[in-house]
Specification:
mainly alpha, 79% helix
């Protein structure tokens, strides 16, 4: 793949709302920029581990057994529903005192993020060895961190702009609904309905 096309495609995919971006924006809205920026390391580690495992270990099995691929997507959907419930419940607590978005939640959510499959098998070159893939992964890492930071800043700016105007629990509930919709879309796609 052409490097410029790779960068443009990667930026488009990372900018698309999804489970990890929802968590990053939620943390920015509840805890602010400074207390959320460490979550970028969780996102980066989750993506890189998922891509590596999928390329080196799961790729051959998923290609040979479509049931396994479906099971992995359904497990991801179940986790997203669990996360949606946690966010919805947290919306009834004091929002600005703590953040329900932990390092481990961002890491696991990103590890299960369907975007990792797109990176592993569609955007990153397939016919090269792992060490030849390192420059591509380096570029991907910079883009993941940059776009993730934008999501946190977006959440933080919404927190500052709408404090006192919009009830903060709205953000948690909106994030919860968004994660539930994403889980439903993953299930629909897994069963080939859409």
């Amino acid at each position: 793949m052409d490097p410029l096309l790779f960068v443009a495609s990667t930026m488009s995919l990372l900018a698309t709302p999804g489970p990890t971006n929802t968590l990053l924006a939620t943390s920015g809205a509840s805890a602010g920029l400074r207390r959320s920026v460490h979550l970028l390391a969780a996102e980066l580690c989750g993506y890189l581990l998922a891509i590596t495992l999928q390329r080196l270990v799961l790729g051959p099995f998923i290609m040979a057994n479509m049931v396994l691929g479906t099971a992995i997507r359904l497990a991801a959907a179940i986790y997203l529903v669990y996360l949606a419930v946690v966010l919805w419940r947290h919306s009834s607590e004091k929002v600005y005192d703590s953040s329900p978005v932990s390092f481990s939640r961002v890491f696991v959510t990103t590890l299960l993020n369907p975007k990792a499959i797109v990176f592993a098998f569609a955007l990153l070159p397939l016919q090269i060895g792992f060490f030849d893939l390192l420059p591509w992964l380096s570029c991907l890492s910079v883009l993941i961190s940059s776009i993730g930071l934008i999501w946190i800043v977006l959440g933080d700016s919404l927190r500052r702009e709408f404090r006192g105007i919009v009830d903060p629990k709205f953000g948690y509930r909106f994030s919860s609904v968004a994660l539930t919709v994403l889980a439903a879309l993953i299930c629909i796609h897994s069963f080939g309905v859409a």
